[in-house]
Automatic annotation (TrEMBL):
Name of the protein in its database record: Alcohol dehydrogenase
Species in which this protein is naturally found: Mucilaginibacter hurinus
Keyword Oxidoreductase in record: yes
GO molecular function, one term: zinc ion binding
Domain Enoyl reductase (ER) positions: 6-346
Amino acid sequence: MKAALKTENGEFNVEEVDTPEIPHPDWVLVRIKVTGICGTDLRHWKKEEPELVHKVTGHELAGKVVDVGPKVTNVKRGDRVVVETLLGDGICDWCRVQQYNLCPNLYPVRMETVSRSFAEYLIAPAEKLHLLPDHVSYQEAALLDTFSVSLHAIQLSGIKLNDTVAVIGAGPIGLAQLQLAKLSGADVIITDVVDSSLNIARELGADLVINSKKEDALKKVMEFTDSKGADIAFECAGGTSMPETLPQAISYTRIGGKVVIVGGFDTGEIAIPLEWQHIQKAEIKIIPSASYSFWGIHSEMKMSLDLVAKGKMNAKKLITHSFKLDEINKAFETAQDKERTGAVFVALEV
């Protein structure tokens, strides 16, 4: 099969590699149709990481089932599916209660199997596949991983009707967070430094959009909230922005409010100075949110799919660019340079 392999300098070479074989009777082989580039992928772009050299990466995808193991009953050849790429070891206490997003071995396990979507084919356990309705496109379905991340965060937040929410970052996760907060009955402020992303946020129903590079964001948040601050702030930028955006999130949050950390950190120790005395005296709760899994008896991926299928969440508006797999380096450049290109979600047609 054709696959994009990481190089020593963190870019990609598209080469021919062996097609994966179904390893267990309850697994399937999927022909990938669309995969996406997310913030996590961009944090590895042009970064020297010897452990990833000549590896296939990527974890947002939709495709068609082409082969199934003898014990598979929930899908069949020809089915259109979205694949959930969070796969734990299946034996730890967290996997046992469907909190596999917290599995201590999550990344080593998923990187060997389901997190390899920059390629033509992928293997996965049948239970990680969700059938797509005919009216949900492969491109829309490739956004469901992102939507599920935001859904997990919104559920952890304990959001209530008429809350005021501040979302930092108008990328795919932040724009999903915006839509979910609006669905929950909240008023939503969203900040970013890219006007094209903020324009999409406005079209999706944001009550206030702020370009924090051009405007005094804290002043505007306080004006909107009668000087109290937001009930909940969602940090959705992550990565190298975190030393700036996490303190911003705390400054936007009212006394007794909550800050939900959705954006991803880089590996290792990261020192971020915070006003800890203020956080303590104001009893501001800091809530880390990690990927997604189940919420009660419900798969958060399936919940996100249902919201898109019912028209309650808009995935189409977030899809700004599409490239062929052979153009993956150009696609990454486009996704990275969003101030110039206006990129939000960049899809790769496989």
